[in-house]
Amino acid sequence: MTIRSLGVRRAALLASSAAMVCLSAGCGSGDDTASAPRTESGTTSPSDGTSSAPSGVPTDAVSNSLTPSAPQSPAGGTRCHTSELSASVGRNNPGAGQENFPVVLTNESSRTCTLYGYPGTAFVDASGKQLGPDPKRSSAEPETVKLAPGQSAWAGLSFANPEVSGAGTATPAALVVTPPDEEDPLKVAWKSGEVPVSGNESSVRLIPFSPGTGA
């Protein structure tokens, strides 16, 4: 073998060795387009339909901070159901031209349950037709009222005395009371005379539930 042949073979072996070293060390060409795709931290999979969130922050925490949700009972899972309650209307406590009645719900069940917010109320005639406009709720902050078996909570119902306000009146047969977050109502016979049903002073107002009977 000639000296020239030995030189060519040696150069080929050196080139092959250099290529092997480059492969094992991950030599780059300066072009990143051939790299594997990178998954950005916090990116949500398109299949779940939710928006992405910064790394380490739950997606629902971000959405809740941007979109206020409607107020809900903080103890919704333990709320009192209509079938567990009885309803009554307490004695009138008039004052300053106002008639003020406590609407009372009592826990008749064997478990402790909760009420939060306002009752649904409506005066109705003997046929069940509503008399007057829907009641207006006060701006008072509701509280969760825990009712052990046999305990009661009351919500205030008030309206201007029709003899003072001059509003049109009717005498209801009953007051229909629906517990908070329930659909089935309770009916209480109304024995307190005329109520305003028309005119500028016909509004009935409600305050949220508090512990006790309001007596």
Automatic annotation (TrEMBL):
Residues 61-72 have a biased composition (Polar residues). The keyword Translocase does not apply. Residues 41-56 have a biased composition (Low complexity). Keywords: Signal. Residues 29-101, 196-215 are annotated as: Disordered. Residues 80-200 form the DUF4232 domain. The keyword Signal applies. It comes from the Bacteria. InterPro entries: DUF4232. Residues 1-21 form the signal peptide. This is DUF4232 domain-containing protein. It comes from Streptomyces doebereineriae.
